[in-house]
Amino acid sequence: MPGDATPVSEATLSVDSPERMRELGRRLAKVLRPGDLVMLTGELGAGKTTLTRGLGEGLGVRGAVTSPTFVIARVHPSLVGGPALVHVDAYRLGGGLDEMEDLDLDVSLPESVVVVEWGDGKVEELTDDRLHLLIHRVTGDTDDDRRTVVLRGVGARWAGEELGAL
After folding, report:
1. Which of 33, 56, 99, 107 is 20 to 30 Å from the Cα of 143, by its Cα?
2. Cα 15 from Cα 60, distance rounded (Å)
3. Residue scoring higher pLDDT (2 or 21)
4. Which strands sit side by side in the sheet containing 130-137, from one edge to the other?
5. Contacts of 165 (CB under 8 A, 6+ apart)
6. What is the pLDDT of residue 156?
7. Is the pLDDT of residue 1 over 50?
């Protein structure tokens, strides 16, 4: 049943700089495939967009990956024949991602990698399979770049995936 959040694969990683967060995104891109949903959770400034920039680099997509806050969603087509990257800021989507159909995205979501920031409580019902990344600052000091990233693979898609190897 969509929404069941029992992780089948989980890992906790330490990231000590924005460059390392971006590198994590590049490594993660190697295990992603069309139709994957990646949900990013973390406070403002945690590194969600930085990680997504790395994903875009790893997927070989066109265009600079920036926060989609004011446009809600950005589509980055592949330059290398792979899946497009759909980067969504769900903060302002009140009714969940069913509203994405109203955004007139010129892309097939099942053929894309979809990354959703601020998607808690909004995307869980879309699919049985998703990768949920929780990004935490190690300390309350905003000048400290250290983060703990918990990767939780939910659903059959992520069974057996060695997330700790990232």
Report:
1. 56
2. 23
3. 21
4. 7-15, 147-154, 130-137, 37-41, 112-117, 84-89, 73-76
5. none
6. 93
7. no
Q: What is the CA radius of gyration of the chain?
A: 15
Q: How far apart are CA 84 and CA 104, in angstroms?
A: 15
Q: What is the 3-state secondary structure (H, E, C) of 50-100?
A: HHHHHHHHHHCECCCCCCCCCCCEEEECECCCCCEEEEEEHHHCCCCHHHH
Q: How confident is the model at residue 109 (pLDDT cuts 50, 70, 90)?
A: confident
Q: How do the domains of the chain map onto residue ranges?
A: 8-93+100-155
Kindly state the average pLDDT of the residues 51-68.
Answer: 92
Task: State how far the Cα of 71 lies from the Cα of 87, in Å rounded to an integer.
Answer: 10
Six token digits for residue 80: 């290398």
Output the CA torsion sign for 66, 112, 102, 121.
Answer: negative
The 3-state DSSP composition of the chain as helix, strand, coil percent (nearest 5) reads 25, 30, 45
* Distances from the Cα of 101 to the Cα of 73, 106, 107, angstroms: 11, 10, 10
Nearest Cα to Cα of residue 114 among 93, 134, 85, 89? 85
Residue 154 pLDDT level (bands cut at 50, 70, 90): very high
Query: By the 8 A CB rule, do 24 and 166 touch?
Result: yes
